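Data deposition worksheet. Section B asks for the primary sequence of the deposited chain exactly as it was used as input, without tags or linkers unless they were present during the calculation. Section C holds the resulting structure in token form. Section D is free text for depositor observations; keep each observation to a single sentence. Incomplete worksheets are returned to the depositor.
Section A, Depositor: J.P.
Section B:
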Amino acid sequence: MMNKPNFSNLKAVFVNCTLKKSPETSHTDYLMDVSKQMMKKEKVTIDEMRLVDHEVAYGVYPDMAERNGQADEWPALSERILAADILVIGTPIWLGEKSSVAQKLIERLYSLSGMTNEKGQYLFYGKVGGCMITGNEDGIKHCAMGILYALQHIGYSIPPQADCGWIGEVGPGPSYGDKEWNGRQLEKPMGFDSDFTNRNTTFMTYNLLHLAAMLKQNGGYPNYGNSRAAWDDGSRWEFENPEYR
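Section C:
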């Protein structure tokens, strides 16, 4: 018999990188909502945003308004992302790639990657990341590969099977959640009955929750051997420069 874990002390932020501003329908949001609803039932605190709804500048500095005077809402948005234990990035596929909005998000996350936490570790240590992808042609694994690599590179922890998605047939056709196509009513919303998508979305959601809960319970990662502050102060642990061996 499985014991039901308690995830009620966790917070997740879902960032939809659709190209469509609210309130226009986002098919990616339909899929992200499946994971959100599971987390809400587990008493997880949910925050969500569409990046395109906000004036986020291009650049790889924490505040581009300070850097060159661009209007930039990123500092306020990044506070919301940093307040969460889990980050889920959602994106449509365009020309086989994640959206330009998703790439901008990754670049702005990267702008914070040199900062450190109270242990002297990079800022995203102890936080967990995953991604959700929708489209009408192949590319889920390709997009997930780039997103998850970027997240782990800046310090996020990636659990097993941390991606999920849905794609339709090659070429124009109904997208995830569509109830009609070309004036024809569909029997059920497109993709909602995909066992593959539903299973992977569920596994991704709970793997994110399990890893986030374990990290939070243990206060994140120990900082022995991975503290930038300690390295800068001269600590080298068991490292030995091969030049001197």
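Section D:
The first helix runs from residue 27 to 41.
DSSP finds seven helices and eight strands in the chain.
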